[in-house]
Amino acid sequence: MLPSENRLRRREDFAAAMRRGRRAGRPHLVVHLSGGTDPHTVGEDASPPRAGFVVSKAVGNAVVRNRVQRRLRHLMRDRLSALPAGSLVVVRALPGADGAPYDQLARELDAALERLLGGVRP
């Protein structure tokens, strides 16, 4: 589980990451990364990186969607330290993510983050 300070919860934050951020697609996921500035904290220290997940009904039924989201959340938790402070990350699961092995999802997430971060390996 992600710590509460690292979770995206507000619709505006999801929209900001998906509209203004950069995107890297892989066969089972699309990762959106918005820069290291949080518009909600003015004049304060930089907030920690925050992550959110989008798993649509196209992925499967509720049980399948929750399993995919738990797997992605666990993978993202281990990679938060490589993200810049204040960054917003949205990981969107694509249809077929439910059948992908855990290590394949990990490789795809690593490849997407590496592309978005400019070659810095998480």
From TrEMBL:
Protein name stated in the entry: Ribonuclease P protein component
Transmembrane segments: none
The UniProt record lists the keyword Nuclease: yes
NCBIfam families associated with the record: rnpA
EC number: 3.1.26.5
Record family assignment: Belongs to the RnpA family.
Function statement: RNaseP catalyzes the removal of the 5'-leader sequence from pre-tRNA to produce the mature 5'-terminus. It can also cleave other RNA substrates such as 4.5S RNA. The protein component plays an auxiliary but essential role in vivo by binding to the 5'-leader sequence and broadening the substrate specificity of the ribozyme.
InterPro entries linked: Ribosomal_Su5_D2-typ_SF (IPR020568), Ribsml_uS5_D2-typ_fold_subgr (IPR014721), RNase_P (IPR000100)
Catalytic activity: Endonucleolytic cleavage of RNA, removing 5'-extranucleotides from tRNA precursor
Location of region: Disordered: 25-49
Domain of life: Bacteria
Annotated keywords: Endonuclease, Hydrolase, Nuclease, RNA-binding, tRNA processing
Keyword Cell membrane: no
Database matches in HAMAP family: RNase_P
GO MF term list: ribonuclease P activity
Top enzyme category: hydrolase
Organism, scientific name: Streptomyces litchfieldiae
Subunit structure of this chain's protein: Consists of a catalytic RNA component (M1 or rnpB) and a protein subunit.
